[in-house]
Design a protein that fits this description.
Layout (H helix, E strand, L loop, with lengths): L1 E5 L3 H12 L3 E5 L3 H8 L10 H11 L2 E4 L2 H7 L2 E4 L14 H13 L4 E5 L7 H15 L6 E5 L9 H6 L4 E4 L4 H13 L10 E4 L1 H32 L3 H9 L20 H14 L5 H13 L2 H10 L7 E5 L14 H11 L3 E5 L4 H11 L10 E3 L3 H5 L4 E4 L11 H7 L4 E4 L6 H6 L3 E3 L10
Parallel strand pairs: 1-2, 1-4, 2-3, 4-5, 5-6, 7-8, 9-10, 9-12, 10-11, 12-13, 13-14
Helix pairs in contact: 1-3, 5-6, 9-11, 9-12, 11-12
Length: 457
């Protein structure tokens, strides 16, 4: 099938590459010439395991092309995926200017029937806005053309997006029941047929329910994380071990183990903005989502937990203190620094006078860019920040180690070497990678999240 992907960001690039891998003829459009140049030269503008190989293979086969030519992109695809960014607006709502802009471009250039698919995460009612924008362009040009707008939200986890796309646990598609919608249903069913050979993974529903499903899913996952973080903070006070609690409640099949890990807060491009956008949608309809407001507040507070533990141990004034930090990205297997907890912790440490050596396996370049923006008002603070070449290099002479991202490379370090490199054997573990009892036995002063039992050597 001939497919156009509008937007070569995280969702668009993964979607386009994977659909090409299935044998489709995919045209990826982006208005960012620099990004298109990178892709056409064989590079990848994001870090995602397995993606570079798929892009390279399908470019070589001629099934995947990248361009800034809008007219050519509209002419190419019978199905047009809109996968542009929907950043949060000042009021927390999703900014749909890029989605509507893409729709207008389709309306300006389309000549025959098109299925327009909202792949971007968008609030309920966006399909109506996309439909109206396309129709306005058609009317302005005096053209008549049939089309259908479909909602097909993505459920990709950064760091596992290729696997998630190629082996989906569900595919959600929202179509209307007009003749055009029925035609779109047939097209989408054909497109996703390779995923449904073993068993049916597609959930068909109306467009608004599909739009709502994406936000509801992310809001539920964010809620589980914040709930466990609140329990973890209480566990620290009452002397309980949140890991034991997690096993105890996760064994209940009604609850399960997923997204019950306590830590130093969630980040990334999805949970923070999607929770805010759903709250905003509720306010537009006169409702107040009290639980989600609490979820957001808990998460904002949780990003300060490691900093608070460090201050409680070393004092308010950290001048002259030096810390090592492992992990910058908001989660492992990505270089995404959006809403990363490391940014909050670094801000607290540097502004209190400390110096910090940091290491991350893939996010160093992106971290340099983002932190320059974070400290634009006080760039001199960054002079006390050093980017280390490896984990052990970061530890040299540090008063303590803080762990913010649960990279596999951090899970089994040489603890004797860690102890030797540190000025004092103190670890603040924001992802609960290690067992308190084992750390105490090894001679470490260990501070986890909700793991107050046996925290001191």
């Amino acid at each position: 099938m001939k497919i156009t992907i509008i937007g070569t960001g995280y969702v668009g690039l993964v979607t386009g590459a994977c659909l090409a891998e299935l044998g489709n003829d995919v045209f990826c459009l982006d208005v960012d010439q620099k990004k298109i140049d990178i892709l056409n030269s064989g590079g990848i503008p994001i870090h995602e395991p397995g993606l570079a190989e798929i892009v390279s293979r399908n470019r070589a086969f001629g099934r995947l092309k990248f361009s800034t030519d809008i007219a050519a992109s509209v002419a190419h695809g019978d199905i047009q995926f809109i996968a542009v960014g929907t950043p949060p607006d000042e009021d927390g709502s999703a900014d749909l200017q890029y989605v509507v802009g893409a729709a207008r471009n389709i309306g300006k250039h389309m000549k025959g029937f098109k299925v327009i698919v909202d792949k971007s995460t968008v609030p309920v009612g966006t399909a109506d806005r996309v439909r109206a924008a396309i129709q306005q362009e058609l009317d302005a040009a005096g053209k008549e053309a049939k089309f259908s707008v479909v909602s097909n939200p993505e459920f990709l986890k950064e760091g596992a997006a290729v696997e998630d796309f190629m082996r989906p646990d569900r595919i959600v598609i929202g179509c209307d029941d007009t003749p055009e919608g029925q035609h779109a249903h047939t097209q989408m069913k054909t497109l996703y047929a390779p995923f449904n050979r073993n068993h049916e993974r597609t959930f068909w529903m109306d467009v608004r329910s599909a739009e709502f499903t994406k936000y509801a899913a992310n809001a539920m996952l964010a809620t589980r994380i914040s709930f466990m973080n609140e329990l973890a903070n209480l566990a620290d006070q009452v002397g309980a071990d949140i890991e034991a609690v997690r096993h105890g409640i996760g064994s209940d099949p009604r609850i399960g183990y997923s997204f019950l890990y306590a830590g130093c807060g969630y980040g990334g491009s999805c949970f923070p903005k999607d929770v805010q956008a759903l709250e905003r949608t509720a306010r537009d309809y006169g409702q107040d989502l009290l639980i989600l407001r609490a979820v957001e507040a808990v998460n904002d507070k949780q990003k300060h937990v490691l900093g608070n533990k460090i201050v409680a141990r070393f004092g308010d004034d950290l001048s002259g203190k030096h810390f090592a930090l492992w992990g910058l990205a908001f989660k492992p297997n990505t270089d995404d620094m959006r809403e990363a907890s490391s940014r909050v912790l670094l801000g607290e440490l540097l502004r209190r006078g400390a110096s910090v050596a940091v290491y991350d396996p893939v996010a160093i370049a992106e971290a340099k860019r983002v932190l320059a923006l974070d400290f634009a008002d006080s760039p001199a603070l960054l002079q006390r920040l050093r980017f280390a070449a490896d984990p052990m290099d970061a530890l040299a002479g540090a008063d303590a180690l803080a762990i913010v991202t649960e990279w596999k490379a951090f899970r089994s370090p040489d603890f004797a070497q860690v102890k030797q490199q540190l000025k004092a054997p103190v670890i603040f573990d924001g992802r609960n990678l290690f067992e308190p009892a084992i750390m105490a036995e090894a001679g470490f002063e260990y501070h986890g999240i909700g793991r107050s039992v046996l925290t001191r050597a």
